[in-house]
Amino acid sequence: MSHTPFCHLFRVTSWGESHGPAIGCVVDGCPPLIPLTEADLQPWLDRRKPGGSRFVTQRKESDTARILSGVFDDGAGPVTTGTPIAIHIDNEDARSRDYGEIARAYRPGHADVTYQAKYGVRDHRGGGRSSARETASRVAAGAVARKVLGDGVVIRAGVVQLGPHRIAPDAVDLDAVYENPLFAASAGVVPDWEAYLDGVRKAGSSIGAVVALEVKGVPAGWGAPLYAKLDSELAAALMSINAVKGVEIGAGFDAAELSGEDNADEMRLGRDGSIEYLSNHAGGILGGISTGQPITARIAFKPTSSILTLRRTVTRDGTETDLRTKGRHDPCVALRGVPVVEAMAACVLADALLRHRAQIG
């Protein structure tokens, strides 16, 4: 099995390679009668697409989505039919010649050597299937998931750490994320971060980053105990994003430094008799089930492995060599990872909504 589909009832299968003719996805399990057009997909894809600033890869892709199936206009506008939704995105600006030198040499930090070990063949052109180009398909699927969730669920993410530079927790402003080219969760850090990333970019190097995720509007009750925990499903989806090496929910690793008294999210009754939490170390999920509080997570992205600095490696025929990776690459892949984080959260939550309805009604 290729293990390509993810989620359960809201099931997504992406397809295509970085330098193939096109990429796309098939979304199965979307309920019928939800209004859906390409215009619902494009704004999210535009946030992820390359070439938007000097801080991302200069590959020029419009990432124009076409819906090929699963939608029908019965006279009142296109709506989902309950059948698989196929979405197609052309690759318009692949430059395969940039990757000629790595056809035989394995790029350090990339999946080249593991793909070769597993399949006995690999597409060296931009990483093929392992390229971050594939994440455009995820963003398209996430746009469909947002339609399933409705406007009541608000999903936002932003960069809160760029290399060693951190935004203080009380200074995080997710409203600022899509107003600056760094997807930074604070307008105040942008000038210094731009100068820092310019230095990284001009040196032909790369840097990692941390993205924070916040989801509001999820009611209490989504998810399941033990083997289908909402936080485990969310963590798995986020870990599947290219270059992600760590995910923490709520307080995450900081919880290891807290006492039981400090970590427990105490409760009181609100004026309407509903439960109010006095903190949110759990990140909106307890026992694998949503609490009704904001769902929070932090996602660590490693530095882009494609850099111009010579790195030691080996070739397929067993020769030691030094290699620099040419081509057009993101100096910090986490920047365009922000809309991908949001999309994966949307898919998991749409799936959780449908599974909750299936069990509870």
Sequence of strands across the biggest β-sheet: 8-7-9-15-10
Q: Based on helices, strands and strand pairing, what is the structural class?
A: alpha+beta
Shape: globular
Query: How many strand segments?
Result: 17
Q: Could you report the average pLDDT, rounded to the nearest whole number?
A: 92
Strand content: 15-25%
Characterize the main sheet.
5 strands, antiparallel
Q: Identify low-pLDDT runs.
A: none
Subunit arrangement of the protein: single chain
Return Rg in Å.
21 Å
Helix percent band: 10-25%
Terminal CA distance: 33 Å
- By DSSP (H or I, 4+ residues per run), the number of helices equals 7
Order of helices and strands: EEHEEEEHHEEHEHEHEEEEEEEH
Summarize the structure.
By secondary structure, the chain is an alpha+beta fold.
Please describe what this structure looks like.
- This protein is an alpha+beta fold and 361 residues long.
- Helix content is 24%, strand content 22%.
- The chain has helices spanning 38-48, 112-119, 135-149, 190-202, 230-239, 260-263, 334-360; strands at residues 11-16, 22-28, 65-67, 71-73, 78-80, 85-90, 154-162, 165-166, 209-216, 244-249, 267-269, 275-277, 285-286, 289-290, 295-301, 311-314, 320-323.
- Helix 1 (38-48) crosses helix 3.
- The longest helix has 27 residues, at 334-360.
- The radius of gyration is 21 Å and the shape is globular.
